[in-house]
TrEMBL record:
Entry keyword Protease: yes
Stretches assigned to the SprT-like domain: 7-158
Keywords in alphabetical order: Hydrolase, Metalloprotease, Protease
Keyword Cell inner membrane: no
Pfam family, one: SprT-like
PANTHER family tied to this protein: PROTEIN SPRT (PTHR38773:SF1)
GO molecular function annotation: metallopeptidase activity
Gene source species: Stutzerimonas zhaodongensis
UniProt protein name: SprT family zinc-dependent metalloprotease
InterPro entries in alphabetical order: SprT-like_domain (IPR006640)
Length: 164
């Protein structure tokens, strides 16, 4: 899976080097990005992170647009410095001039949300429950306490779990 993406990153750098007549250090590439973002460029660590799920589901557009979008951030940072706006003139210049692509800020890929668990907590109030995320539930298990704003009782795990 990542071979085509690595080849596209390299091709983008070669285009930028030919355009600017300058050598660029290649970034580390990671596929450990989840959620709604298709890609992220970490400017100070020269790292590109891509969403493997969105890459698989939108391969052609992802390779053409998203990879160039993120590489353009790193190239703009290396040429113009750290005081430029993320999707400002310099980045747009690279997207249009180097890659001949529309400088779209956001993707329009379909996002499938993962199922989440809600841990149900209760207080002394009748007919009232508080759905906690897995992260908040873990904090309670480590000793953190949460209180009802109405009755001020400590919220207690009911043993119920809902899948949303």
């Amino acid at each position: 899976m990542p071979d085509q993406l690595h080849a596209r990153v390299e091709a983008c750098y070669e285009q930028a080097e030919a355009f600017f007549n300058k050598r660029f250090e290649r970034p580390k590439v990671s596929f450990k990005l989840r959620g709604q973002k298709a890609g992220v460029a970490h400017l100070n660590t020269n790292l590109l992170r891509f969403n493997a799920q969105l890459y698989q589901e939108n391969r052609e557009h992802f390779l053409k647009q998203t990879v160039a979008h993120e590489v353009a951030h790193l190239v703009a940072h290396q040429i113009f410095g750290g005081r430029i706006r993320p999707h400002g003139e310099e980045w747009q210049l690279i997207m249009r001039g180097v890659y001949e692509l529309t400088p779209d800020r956001c993707h329009s890929y379909e996002i499938t949300r993962r199922q989440t668990s809600a841990y149900i907590y209760r207080c002394a109030c009748p007919e009232r429950d508080f759905p906690f995320t897995a992260q908040r539930h873990a904090l309670v298990r480590k000793g953190r306490r949460y209180f009802c704003r109405t009755c001020r009782a400590t919220l207690v795990f009911s043993g119920e779990q809902r899948i949303d």
